[in-house]
Amino acid sequence: MVAQNQAQAIAVAAGAPAEVTLFEPAEPVYALGRRAQGPQGRAQIADALAACQANGIAIVDVDRGGLGTLHAPGQIVAFLAVPCSRLHARRLCAELLSGIARLAQEQGAEARSDLGDDVGVWIADAKLASLGLRVRDEVAHHGIALNYAVDRRLARGLVLCGKPLTTFANLRDHALDQNVDLAFWAQNLAQHWRLADPSTDAPEIA
């Protein structure tokens, strides 16, 4: 999916329409951003890499920033490739995070979005959704991961979003409708996201 997302970003930079691809990972993967690559980066998260090897979690390098993010069955992962300048990247991030928070709130979860020190969507002190974008050639790609029913045991020993002690929330545990499935959420995510239009002067959403 990473290679497909990169190809989509190149196509959008050449004038193709924006793309949003929603999927559920088939296997757990620990995706390492640029901060975790190379000998020094690997040294920062040596214990997390050992935990991945012990638990059979694949490790992949990706071309966005940050340290490590877990992608696993029970998540909705969205890869997007949308026109966006670096000037408007923060507004795009705010749109994505606030859209996820609204969806969770509609299902009864007390979710909040944060674009400050703790970037993501949170329920109390547990992370519901993670965000990681890269802007290149006036196109934003990579995306967001929403935890719906992830096995929490997969996160043992991992550094998640730069924080060893960050726990994560599953939407299924907070939603009013316990029968909501991933396909339903994928459809609603696509409908609710209002991707930032760089041609407008709309204010940022916090």
Q: How is this structure best described in words?
A:
The chain has 206 residues and is α+β, with helices and mostly antiparallel strands. The chain has a single domain, classed as BirA Bifunctional Protein, domain 2. The protein has five helices and ten strands; from the N terminus they run αββααβββαβββββα. Strands 1, 5, 6, 7, 8, 9 and 10 form a seven-stranded mixed sheet that branches. It has a three-stranded mixed sheet with strand order 3-2-4, covered by helices on one side. The protein is globular, with a radius of gyration of 16 Å. Residues 196-206 have low confidence and may be disordered.
Q: CA-to-CA gap between the ends?
A: 30 Å
Number of strands: 10
- Coarse structural class: alpha+beta
pLDDT < 50 stretches: 196-206
Q: Output the CATH homologous superfamily.
A: Bira Bifunctional Protein, Domain 2
Amount of helix: 25-40%
CATH-defined topology: BirA Bifunctional Protein, domain 2
What's the story with the biggest beta sheet?
Answer: 7 strands, mixed
So what's the CATH class?
A: Alpha Beta
Order of helices and strands: HEEHHEEEHEEEEEH
Q: Give the rounded overall mean pLDDT.
A: 81
Number of helical segments?
5
What overall form do the CA principal axes indicate?
A: globular
CATH architecture: 2-Layer Sandwich
> How many domains make up the 3D coordinates?
1
Tell me the fraction of residues in β-strands, as a range.
25-35%
Radius of gyration: 16 Å
